[in-house]
Design goal:
Elements lengths: L1 E4 L3 H11 L10 E4 L6 H5 L5 E4 L7 H9 L6 E5 L3 E3 L3 H8 L5 E9 L6 H23 L10 E5 H6 L10 H11 L3 E12 L5 H21 L2 H7 L4
Parallel strand pairs: 1-2, 2-3, 6-8
Antiparallel strand pairs: 4-7, 5-8, 6-7
């Protein structure tokens, strides 16, 4: 498990606690302290993890994940956000899905941890529709639009062959999903594996997030030629 963290001292403890509460324990946990200026390092030190600090702030989550990849020795690496809490059986379900040799990467169902503000309630409805209708349909056609970047597991050798998670777009999770599909790999959605991730609490923050996601979608259309998508994943 690789957890990139930049000034996540307030949330990291809950994230790591969920990692160490797994029914299938992680073989190794690496926390990438991306030159934090808060107590991120101190919080990580409370757990039995390998803490590595990047020489300079990498500037993006994907770059921090790639820095942590050099400390991974296992066959499968799960990258999770520092504000994400795993259900206690998440690793078990993901490992089960990746027993299929055709599966290159797998991720589960994302839900908000609470639904108190209007934006959080709206996101809950969006997630329930997306992860209980659209994602299963996409999985049936073998054409997942995106594996959730906050909790995706990938075969380590494929990541290394690719030089790490792509950093050329602002939605690296979509970029990586499409890259694997173009290579003929299966990207698995595992509905039984559930995670809870922090959501924007204001309309302004949600609008900023949605704008980034939509912009990243068009970036990926530019990088992944339509001819490739039609040939390998026409349903996508």
């Amino acid at each position: 498990v690789v957890v990139p963290a930049y000034n996540e001292g307030g949330r990291l403890r809950e994230t790591l606690a969920s990692v160490f509460a797994q029914s299938r324990p992680a073989d190794r946990v690496v926390v990438v302290d991306d030159c934090s200026t808060d107590d991120t390092n101190a919080v990580a030190s409370e757990f039995d993890v390998t803490i590595v600090r990047s020489p300079a702030n990498t500037g993006s989550k994907a770059a921090a994940q790639n820095y942590g990849l050099q400390f991974v020795q296992e066959d499968i690496v799960l990258t999770i956000d520092a504000d994400t809490v795993l259900d206690s059986h998440y690793l078990w379900w993901i490992e089960w899905a990746m027993r299929d040799p055709k599966v290159a990467a797998a991720a589960g169902c994302v839900l908000p941890p609470r639904s108190e503000t209007p934006t959080e309630r709206g996101r809950l409805i969006e997630w329930l529709l997306g992860f209980h209708f659209f994602r299963p349909v996409q999985a049936m056609t073998g054409a997942s639009v995106v594996l959730a970047g906050c909790c995706t597991a990938t075969r380590t050798d494929l990541l290394r062959q690719a030089g790490g998670i792509p950093t050329r777009t602002i939605t690296e999770d979509m970029d990586w999903t499409w890259t694997l599909q173009e290579q003929g790999w299966v990207t698995a959605y595992v509905p039984q594996a559930v995670v809870y991730t922090a959501e924007p609490k204001s309309v302004k923050l949600m609008a900023k997030q949605l704008n980034r996601w939509s912009s990243g979608f068009f970036q990926n259309l530019r990088h992944h030629r339509l001819s490739n998508l039609w040939r390998h994943r026409p349903m996508l």
